[in-house]
């Protein structure tokens, strides 16, 4: 179960995900987390005490998008707080997937080794993500957004490298597909 500090400016979740809100003693004894208007979580608010994680659940009907929330007392040095519901369920590093420009997705690494994902240098358009590669720690997650101005209807072959050796068991290389009018899931 992933944990998120109540004072995070941005968290990215998927529908039906169970998560934990946390706050450290240095940040305060008790913090209330609540939506600005609507939000994708199943409860209307959460009271989180320092050192005691509080479980929260994302609604199964949560629509992909951005939801504002706030904390009482206010988050220090944070001007806005958002929960993003990703357009897809967790994406295995070895699977191909389709996502729309502007949408978020979350890669999941279910292995005991770090995984690095990079574009195949033979891609016509390299790839739409800003960094040259992304590393996901063992049993970790990485939330990313496809830029709003990404070229639509493009397929990007991915090179997946596992620390300590190994590879994806698929016969073909996984692909990130940026769609347009194809749907994001």
Topology:
Layout: E1 2-5, E2 10-13, E3 18-22, E4 30-35, E5 46-49, E6 54-57, E7 65-72, E8 81-85, E9 91-92, E10 97-99, E11 104-108, E12 115-119, E13 134-136, E14 141-145, E15 154-162, E16 175-178
Parallel strand pairs: 1-3, 2-8, 9-11, 10-16
Antiparallel strand pairs: 3-6, 4-5, 4-7, 7-8, 11-14, 12-13, 12-15, 15-16
Task: Tell me about this structure.
The chain is an all-beta fold. The chain folds into two domains: 2-85, Cupredoxins -  blue copper proteins (Immunoglobulin-like); 91-178, Immunoglobulin-like. The protein has no helices and 16 strands. It has a five-stranded mixed beta sheet with strand order 2-8-7-4-5, with no helix packed on it. The protein has a five-stranded mixed beta sheet with strand order 10-16-15-12-13, with no helix packed on it. It has a three-stranded mixed beta sheet with strand order 1-3-6, with no helix packed on it.
- Biggest pleated-sheet summary: 5 strands, mixed
CA radius of gyration: 18 Å
CATH fold topology of the largest domain:
Immunoglobulin-like
**Helix share, percent:** under 10%
Low-confidence stretches: 181-185
Count the strands?
16
CATH structural class of the largest domain: Mainly Beta
Domain module tally: 2
Tally of DSSP helical segments:
0
Order of SSEs: EEEEEEEEEEEEEEEE
Estimate the mean pLDDT confidence: 91
Strand content: 35-45%
For the largest sheet, list the strands in their spatial order: 2-8-7-4-5
First and last CA, distance: 23 Å
Derived structural class: mainly beta
- Outline, from the CA principal axes? globular
